[in-house]
Amino acid sequence: MSRAGTCDDRDVAGSKVKQKSVRNMVLSLAVTVLAAGVVYLFVPHDDGTPDLPRVDYRVELLTARRAASYPVVAPQGLPDTWKPTSVRFQGDKFDAWHLGYHTPDGGYVQVQQSMEKADDFIEQASQGGHRTDVTERIGDRTWTRYTGGRYDALVSREDGATTVVAGTGSFGQLTEMAKALRAE
């Protein structure tokens, strides 16, 4: 009998050790999760969009206007809430002019001009946009709408170059940019 009693005592003792091990693992996991939560709350992190720096594009614009074989355009009179964020002129690549803006509501609108073959240039500038039947007169130019690509676009083909106003902004914002363009 004593043998049987001893065996039962060992089973009970082993069961208690297993219960304590499981309990200790659960408590350790809870402490680890709690510590990770505290660290997450108190370590600073920024989930917002980065503040893009405003670029001064005057030098590149003057260079482009002197070098390009067509009248290079840039906006005049846009509100300060439109922030220029990118600019480049590539004289060795079809006199390609690019000026990008961050819009007041967080969108993006760019002006691009080039002497490159129009269809190839429009494809690249609108990132896959397709011509629609909608045209409108904005300023002294006729613009055609392109949709369906990564960017919507307004396209004008004049003065030996193609001008594309494209971006994630609304057609209202694209039109606002097109209205502001000057070749002076």
Mean pLDDT: 88
Major sheet characteristics = 7 strands, antiparallel
> In angstroms, what separates the terminal alpha carbons?
110 Å
Helix-and-strand structural type: alpha+beta
Topology pattern, helix = H, strand = E: HHEEEEHEEEEHE
Runs in which pLDDT lies below 50 for 5 or more consecutive residues are none
Radius of gyration: 32 Å
Estimate percent helicity: 25-40%
General shape: elongated
Beta-strand content bin = 25-35%
Oligomer: single chain
Widest β-sheet, arrangement of strands: 2-3-4-8-7-6-5
Query: How many β strands by DSSP?
Result: 9
The number of distinct helices, counting runs of at least 4 residues, comes to 4
Structure description:
The protein has 184 residues and is α+β, with helices and mostly antiparallel strands. 38% of the residues lie in helices and 30% in strands. It has four helices and nine strands. The strands form two sheets. The protein has a seven-stranded antiparallel beta sheet with strand order 2-3-4-8-7-6-5, sandwiched between helices. The longest helix is centred in the N-terminal third of the chain and has 41 residues, at 2-42. The protein is elongated and about 95 Å long. The N and C termini lie far apart (110 Å). The mean pLDDT is 88.
